[in-house]
Amino acid sequence: IVDAVIVSNSRPLWPYALTGLVWVLMAAGAAAVFLRPLWGRLPGAIRNLRVAPRWPSQRIAGDPAGGIIAAALGAMLLAVLPDGGLSSPFTVLRALLLLYLILLAIQAPVAVALVAAGTQFFHVLSPEIGPVAFGVPELMLGTLVAGWIVRGLYRGRLELRRSWILYAGLIFLLAAVIATGSAPYSKFAVRGLRTGVIEPLLLFVLLSTYLKRRHAPALLGALALGGVATALVALFDPLAGRIITVGELPRLRGLFGSPNNLGLVLERAVPLLVGLAMVARGAGIRRMWWAGGIVAAAVLVGSGSRGAWLATAVALGIIAVPWWW
Fold first, then answer.
1. Model pTM?
2. 190 FRET partner, CA 20 to 30 A, in 18, 117, 182, 304?
C-alpha cells in the first residue's frame, strides 16, 4: 500500500480499495450492532450532556447561535494552532478539538454544516496533524461526515435527501473511481479523486440534507463572512511581508501564492456581499454587509487582478439590472 499509494509507483489500485471497503463495511456493521446498547449503558449525566453552548440565546435561521459560534471558533483554532509531530501537545490539542467538533456535529449538525461551508475559501491552510496535513475545509467536512455516520448508525438509517443531482453525482463518482483505478500514478489520481470529486459531492450531500430553505440566508452569510475573513487577512500583507511586486505595482495576495488566486476568491465575495446588503432587513445587518463589501472590494483592487476586476464588474452589473430602466 505504501509503495502504490504514497510512493506513487505504478500499481493496480483496486485490491487496496477493495480491502479498505471491506474493512469499512465490517466496522460499520459492528458499530450498528453495538452502538445503541453501549450508549444505553452510559450514565444519564453523560447521555444528557450537551456540547453545544446555550449562550447566546439568539437563533440564526431557527437554530441556536451558540452551536454556530462554537463551530466557528473550533475551525479558527484548527487553522491557527502551530503544527507538530505525533507527540506534540498541539497535535493532541488539535485531535481533542476534532473530537469535540464531531460531537457537535452529532448534536448540532446544522451549525457544523454552516461553518464547513464558510471555510471553503481557506483550503490553503493545511495544518499538520502528526504525519498528515489536511486543509481546514477538509477537517470541518470530515467532522461533519463523522457526525453524520454516527447519527445514522445510532438511528439505524442514514439521513439523506435524494435528488436528481445526487444521482448524477454518484454516476460521475463511479466514472471517476474507475478512471482512478486505471491511472498510472496512484498518488496523484487518488488526491484528485478526493479533492475534486468525493469532497465536493459529500459537502453537497450533507448541506442539502441538513440545511432547509430557511437556512439559505445563513448559508450565503457564511460564505460571505469567509470572503471577508480572507480579505482581512490580506490587509496585513504589508506587515507580514507577503506583498508581491510585479513591475512597480505592489499586489496583495493574502494566504494564497498568487494575487490572482486572492482575486478569484474576492470576485465572488464582493457581489455576494453587495447582494446581501441590498436585501438585508435590519439596518445593523445591512451596514455590516456594506462594510464587509467595502473591505473586500478594497483588497480586490489591491490584488491587482484585472480578470477579477472585470468579473466583479460584470457580476455587479447583473445585480443592478432592475435599476437600469
1. 0.85
2. 117
